[in-house]
């Protein structure tokens, strides 16, 4: 299993939450097929965050649950940003 350094995992997490949630996802929501792209990206983020959390020694269910929450955060943020900027 690949182990990721905490600094790398933290950087990717912040970039995903801020970069995707505030800038990229709202832009995609305005495009045709953007919602499908967000679903795919959210799934990929959940897998990536799950890999980050597995190194902590948490159980698989806990790791998957937190990965899903972290992956959904940018999508939720994007919906809020999109509604506020309309």
Number of helices: 3
* Average pLDDT level: 85
Distance between the termini: 44 Å
Radius of gyration: 14 Å
The helical percent reads over 70%
User: Would you count the extended β strands for me?
Assistant: 0
Q: Biggest sheet, open or closed, and with what strands and sense?
A: none
Order of helices and strands: HHH
Cα shape = elongated
Oligomeric state of shown chains: single chain
- Residue stretches low in confidence (pLDDT < 50, at least 5 long) are none
% residues in beta strands:
under 5%
The secondary-structure class comes to mainly alpha
Short description:
With 86 residues, the protein is an all-alpha fold. It has helices spanning 6-29, 34-54, 60-84. The mean pLDDT is 85.
Keywords:
elongated; 86 residues; single chain; mainly alpha; 0% strand
Task: Kindly describe this structure.
With 86 residues, the protein is mostly helical. Helices cover 81% and strands 0% of the residues. Helix 1 packs antiparallel against helix 2, helix 1 runs parallel beside helix 3 and helix 2 runs antiparallel to helix 3. It is elongated, with a radius of gyration of 14 Å.
């Amino acid at each position: 299993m690949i182990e990721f350094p905490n600094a790398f995992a933290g950087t990717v997490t912040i970039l995903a939450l801020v970069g995707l949630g505030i800038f990229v996802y709202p832009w995609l929501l305005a495009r045709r097929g953007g919602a499908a792209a967000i679903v795919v990206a959210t799934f990929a983020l959940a897998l990536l965050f799950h890999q980050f959390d597995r190194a902590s020694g948490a159980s698989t269910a806990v790791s998957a649950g937190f990965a899903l929450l972290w992956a959904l955060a940018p999508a939720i943020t994007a919906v809020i940003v999109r509604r506020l900027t309309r």
